[in-house]
Amino acid sequence: MAALPAPSDPAPASEPAPPESSELARLAGAAVQTAGDPTTDRAAAAKSLAALMPALAKSAQQAGVGAVAAGRWVTDVVLDIAPQIPIRNAAALRSHHPGRSDAQIADALIKHSASTTAALGAAAGALAAVEFVAPPSLLAAPIQLAAHLVAVTAVELKLVAELHELAGDRPSGTLVDRTGAYLVSWVQRRAVSTVVGSDGHVAVGPMLTEAAQRQIRSQLLRRLGRSATTMAPLLIGAVAGAEINRRTTKALGSRLVRDLRL
To answer: What is the pLDDT of residue 56?
Structure first.
């Protein structure tokens, strides 16, 4: 599994990621960068989701119907791409927000992430509206939902990691270890130190505990079910998807800020 280090990390000595994993990580990373100009957010998000769907469809076909139906496939996708999401360390975050306090930076990170996931929800809903006009394309709906889920999860994992970096509460261990801790933090909606111990040492992938993998799979499946609201006809799904994502991401960030005392 490849690892894309934070700016302060030396390049880790690890085996190269499979090409499909690297491609999925690249496409999910593009979705993370969606938010910016509100007038172009939805178009950029739609483009990101559309680019992600073929790669996910190929991955799902390779995984098989059983793994997809059980939720193992989408969990494996998230576990594969999570260590490759680019994370800024505290110094980089402060340099990108000159003159702001850590509390103000944290607020900006939450607002940006909520705006990004809202744009992704709106884009998914807009795509669904088109599909209801062209029913044959509804065959792509499950992959569209998975693309929305993977993109939103990537955005929220980046938020979780960067809030911890900003607070000086980076978990110990390698990049892969830290990713495992951040995944558990994302599932529990709590800071790493409150859910995995003071050292925050949790491995990801095959070394992640079976219980933790079940928790991650359960959380992903719950979010996947919630994502189904974006499939409502006309543009109802776009409005619902945007608002649900915005509220969920904002609540996640606000809870972590309290835990991390930012």
So the answer is: 85
Distance CA(166)–CA(220), nearest Å, equals 26
Q: Which of 192, 179, 184, 212 is nearest to 85 (CA)?
A: 179
Mean pLDDT for 32-41 is 58
Indicate the residue type of 251: A
CA angle 6, 8, 9 (to 5 degrees): 65
137 within 8 A of 130, measured Cβ to Cβ: yes
Alpha carbon distance 72, 151 (integer Å): 17
Compute CA 72 distance to the chain's CA centroid, rounded to the nearest angstrom.
17
Give Cα separations from 235 to 121, 122, 123, 156 (angstroms): 11, 9, 10, 25
Domain extents for the chain? 19-260
Longest CA–CA span in the chain (Å) reads 53
Measure the CA–CA gap between 260 and 62, rounded to whole angstroms. Answer: 40
pTM of the model: 0.78
